[in-house]
Input
Amino acid sequence: IVLTVNSISSYILTQTSLSTLTIIIIANNNWGAQPIERGAKITVSPTNSIPSVLFETKIIPISIQKSSIQLSVFHPQATFYSAIVRKIESDEWSTVIDSIANTVINIECFGTLVPCDDNFFEGIVYEICVFAENQFGSQKVLNYSNCINFSPTDSSPNILSSIKSIIIVDITFKQFTIEWNYVPEATNYLIQSRISSSSTFLDSITTNLNTTTISAKSNALYEIRVIPQNNFTNKTLDNIIILQNSKDITSIFVKTTKNIPESTNLFQIKNVFNQNNSILIEFQWNYVSTASFYFIRAAEVTEYGYGEWIDFPETSFNSINISDGLNLNILYEFRLISGNRFGINQTEPISLKFLPTLDVPMIPITNQNVLQISNTSVKMGWDPVFSAHLYKVEKLNSSSRIYEFMGITYETTFTAKNLISESNVRFRISPGNTFGFYDSNLLNLSNIIISPQTNIFTGDLTFNNSNTFSEYTSIIDVVLKNEITMCEIENSRIQVSVFDVQSTSPPTEIPQSIEIVDINCSEDIYQGKLRFKRIRVPEFYGYYYIILWDDDNNSTTPKKTLQIIER
Output
């Protein structure tokens, strides 16, 4: 419907229905009219009552300063607006705007202009609530308002720490919707997106407080960053430099899809709490790029299998607290189910077992072993203790004979670093929970003893079927690749030692029959083969070492050490 209005600045539109209208005002003179896209647009909804709560009062911060805030407010059935403000931790409200006929609100807390504090205080978070009003009344009578938080400032938001989390709330084949935590010092947000294979972010600005929908290519993985801004941001050169160079800005990976999501690769218990003599468990997991929500499914573990499965409420975050429906001292299996609008992943859920208790774990770890070793580090692993959700790792001080703290892990593995080469190291692993750690001195010390070696390089093993020496020996071919020249081997004295990780003894040299195979002493050739006789050690778990020494028998430092894991 096109209406020509000769009046300069006002017009009464008579409308008999209560349909919502979109009105566009277009400037016109004898030379012609503006294009329609240049017109000023407003949405209104005729009514014969106070503004309806079915419409949200949109509040957008325009400017935040140390002593004032400017807001844009709009409700399609409102002609006036009022506002109240309070400190976020206070129950005392102050009226700062009373029935103004303007969609831009200026709140200035200084002098006697408004009945609030003499000044806003920088660093304090305030809550401001806006009531929509018209000639029929105010939303105050409904005790209804829309609110935002803000924090007075005279600087740009900290782009590295302001955004605590970004979550995916919806995914389709060609777009996705994200949400983030609202930043009280921000008036708008810079949304940066890039396909994971690209090095360049595409920028867009939104004045939405904590959500936006992004159009994307189909079946593509994107990295998304959200940067809070305000009227000071462009003046802050430091923030611009950080924005261009930092890899520490909070981000999330999202993949457009039309399929159900994959399963996460990490699911663990982060904390356990005593809540009025019942248990509260905090779970945590890694985000899935194709998932928009998660929930935990739990059942008791019985001797016959599982009890009844219980589904706990959904969340879009990567953590949740669970308490209702859990019994103490009962072993449960918890499964993390990921989902999106296309369905949930039930075929490959990641799971863990846990026994809720209000006591410290009463059993030690078992099956501790060495997973990987280098000259200055060792990765250890062990079986889970179901009443523990974390493990304390300690290392024995060889001088004081006291165990010293190394770290806490929420997994059943731990990598100890910065170890001294050529030394025996004893570790103690203690299962624990919120209520304490198992006293490793009561029963099994749960010790792992390793001996890091210098200049370790890798080799591939080829086991011959031949058993020509005796029933207790076999032959091993070690194929050396790209680590050592044949000249180094030919001009060395070769020693073979065996080390059992479950023993307290150092590596033991054993008599060997060693043969150099396919030798070609050339500086350009880095491949060759060693063959030596292996002595079978019953109940043995550990390593063989091939150690190369200088021909000088007085040498105390090996030139190279090759570690071979017993298969």
Notes: The longest strand covers residues 293-302. The helical segments are 237-245, 486-490. The mean pLDDT is 78. The radius of gyration is 34 Å.
